[in-house]
Amino acid sequence: MPKFKFGKDQRLLKASEFQEVFDLNTFKISHPNWLLLAKFNGDRESRLGLVIGKKNIPTAVGRNFIKRLVRETFRKSDLPHSIDVIFLARKGADKLSARDMALLLQESWCRLRQRCNDSKAKNA
RNA sequence: UGAGUUGACUAGGCAAUCGCUGCACUGAACUCUCCAACAUUCGCUUGCGUUUUUAGGGGAACAGGGCAGAGGAAAGUCCGGGCUCCAAAGGGUAGAGUGCCAGGUAACGCCUGGGGGGCGAAAGCCUACGGAAAGUGCCGCAGAGAUUAGACCGCCGAUGGUUCGUUCGCGAACACAGGUAAGGGUGAAAAGGUGCGGUAAGAGCGCACCGCGCUGCUGGUAACAGUAGUGGCAUGGUAAACCCCACUCGGAGCAAGACCAAAUAGGUUCCCAUAUGGCGCGACCCGCGUUGGGGACGGGUAGGUUGCUUGAGGCAAACGGUGACGUUUGUCCCAGAUGAAUGAUUGUCCACGACAGAACCCGGCUUAUCGGUCAACUCACUUU
Fold it and tell me: What distance, in Å, lies between the first and last C-alpha atoms of chain A?
C-alpha cells in the first residue's frame, strides 16, 4: 500500500476532538507565521486539524492556499504514528510564496518529529 | 494605417507522478449494522408479542479501474423573486421604497425602445427627470438692496419749492421735496432678453422678434413636439429640507424547515420491593458498597440524516418583434463540499499568467481585475 494518503481518518473532524488537543497539548512548535499544537492520541493514526481565522487571513483564496500547503506537507512528512496536530495560522502566512512556505513547513514537521522521538525515548 | 466609441467572448496550454470530493459499476473473505423465510426461548388473551440463530437480501467500510469537479465577478449583501416556517377577513394609520412615457419580465430600484435637458467635431456618453399660486424652513460672503425687493454712484428734476432775471408770456440756476431700475458697481442670482418708438429721465408704457404662462388645433398609445391665438410677464432657487401627490411593500431566513437520536440530569406513568429487602462487585458463598430498583412513554442535547441540486436550466435551429424578449422543435445533464474537496511536484511551450474560491437556488446592480480575441460604428490621413 502506498503511503502519503490523506483520508478522513487523518483529520480532526469534531469540535470535541479539537478541544482535546487545545486543552491537553504536550508539544508547541512556534513560527512567526503559525503555531503547531500536538498530543499523542493512543493507537490511532495521526490526525491534522486546521484553524485559519478570517481575522488573520482575510481572503478565502489565502485560506485555501494555506490549507492546501499544510495538508500537502503533512501528508508527505513522515510523522510517527498516533499524534494529533493542530495548525494555527497567524497573520501574514498568506504573504509567503508557495515554495518558501513549503520549505518552512517541512522544517516545522521535522522539529515536531524530533520532539516526539525524544519524548518517546524518555518515557521508555 | 492611426485615434476613438459601443457590444460580445476568453481568463495560461500540454504531459507524467502523487493526493482530495462526489457519482454509477465490479468484487473473495472478515468486521459493523438493518431486514428476515424456516427453526427456537419465554409469556399468555392460542395467534400474537418476545429471545436467540441462520439461508438469503440491503447498507456502511474496503479494493479496483471509469466519469465529473469553482467564477466573470463565485465577492459586496445593495435590490428583486423562488423555496421554507410563522402570521393573516377587510380597511386605515405609521414606517420604508420608487418617481418623464411605453414595453419586457416570476419580479425589480433591472433591461429595451422613445421623449426632455446637458456634454462632445462625430460615433456616442451622462441624466432621482412628479409637485415650489397647500403650508413650513433655509439661501453664507459681497452688496444700497436677496423676495411685501432695492436709490450707493449715476440720470432727470416735467410737477412742487427756493433764489435770480423778466418784454409778466416765461427763462435760468440750485439739487430741497421728489422721480427713475437705462448705465456703473456687488453677486451664483438684481423682477423676462434684443431692437425701435416713447419720455424730464426712465420703465412691457407701446410695438416687432425670441422666451414664459394660458386656451385651442394637428401629429403621436403616451411622455412630448409643431402651430395659431391670447396675456403684458404677475409669485427666484432649494423637495438626495420637512412636506404634498401617485404607486409598491406582512415578518423572519437553509444556523429556514423536516426526520433519527447515545450518555447524563430532570418529567409523566406502570410494575416489583418496603429492610431478614432490593441493587452493584462476583460463577457461588462470605464480605464490602449503596438505599430504592426495573420497565414504558414523550420532550430533547452531543452527534447524524435530509433540505441539496433538473433549473424562471444550458446549447442549436426556425418563427414573431426596431429591441429587451417571447413561442415552437430538437438536444444535453453541467460541483454539491460540511473543519468544509477541485491541489502539489517535475518537465515543456508562450503572449510569463490579474482580480480572486461555490455553501439553498435564480434575475440584476455595484465594486476588483494582467492581458488576449472578434464584430459594428465615428473621425483623420494615405493609396486606388
Answer: 30
